[in-house]
Write a structure and sequence with these properties.
The chain has 10 helices and 14 strands. The protein has 354 residues and is α/β, with parallel strands linked by helices. It has 2 domains: 196 residues, Rossmann fold (3-Layer(aba) Sandwich); 141 residues, Glycogen Phosphorylase B (Rossmann fold, 3-Layer(aba) Sandwich).
Amino acid sequence: MSKKVLVAALDWGLGHASRCVPVIEQLLAQDARVYLASSGAAYRFFEQEYPDLPLFKLSLHNFKYWSNHMTINMALQWPKIVRAIIRDRYLIRQLMEQHHFDIIISDNRFGCYHPNAYNIFITHQLYLKLPPWPLVNWLFNQQLNHRFIRRFDTCWIPDLAKAQNLSGRLSHPPFGKMSRYIGPLSRLNAVETPLKYEYLFLLSGPEPQRSRLEAKLRQQIPLLTGKILLVQGRAGATETGKKLTNFEVVPFLKGEDISRAIMSSRYIICRSGYSTIMDLVKLQKTALLIPTPGQTEQEYLAQKLSKAGLFSTQTQKDIDLSNAPLLFVESPDFEPFTESGAHLAKAIKDLLVR
C-alpha cells in the first residue's frame, strides 16, 4: 500500500514552500499519497500549486524583520515562535489521529513531527549565522536549533556534500549521522523563450522588508531603460497585473510562468534567499542580490556567492541602479552546482521502501 506522507513548510516568505515542490513531485512520481500543511503565504502557495491535494492549516509564525539586527529579531519574537511550535505539535497530533501518516516531512517547522511517524526535517541552516558571540551562538545553535532538529529521525540538507557547494558554513559540515545531502532543490525548469524584459524585479520574503524593497526598486525605475517586470511575491493576491508603457506588475507567478519570466529577462534583481538562489542556479541565471536587512543568512550567502563570482550584491539601504548593466556578473560558471535530481530521487526511494 502507498505510504501516506505529510509535507509541512514554514511560512517565512515563499521559499520553504517553493523548494518543497520537487520533494512533492518526487513523492507523487513514486506513488506516495501526499498531504500538505502550512500557514500564511506558504499555505496560499500550496493552495495555488496543488489544488487537488489535501491541505491543512498550521499555526502562523508571522515572523517580522523589524530590526536590522538578527539577534534582536530572534530575541524579541522567540516567545511567539515557541507558541507556534507548541501549537503545531498539537495540530500534528490531531492530524495523526485522523489520517495516520507514515511519514512527516517538515521544512523548517520544528513542531511538525510525531512518534508514530518517520520524521524528516529539511533545512540548509544547520548552523545559524549569528554575531561572533560565544554565548549567543551556543544558545541559538546547540541549545535550540540542534536540539530541535535532533527530535527528527533524519535531516535532509538541500545542497551538495562536496566542498564546492552553495550554502557554505550554513550546512557544512553536517552535525551527525542523521544528516543527508539531497542536492539543491528547485521547482523551476529552463524553457526556451525570447528576451522580453530588460529587468526583472523578483520579490520574496516576510514583511515589512518585502514592501520596503519594492518601494525602493520603484524609485529606481526612472534610472532604467527597457521593459521591466515586477513580481511582488504575494501568493494568493487577486490583483490583476498592471501594465504601463515599459513597466508591468504582477502579484505572483506559478512555476512555469516564473521560469519563463526569469529566462526572458536580461537582468534580475532579487533577494538572496537560499530558495531563490537554488532556482537561479538551476536556470543558470545570475542576479543582483539584495539581502533582507537583519537576515544574517542572506547577508552571508550574498557575500559568499559574490566572492565566488556567481552573483553581485548591494545592500537594501544603498541600492543604486544608475549603472545597472555594469553591476551584473558576466558569464558565471554554474556547472559545478547543476547536478541532476538523482540525490533527491534516491532519498525519496529509500524513504518509501524503509
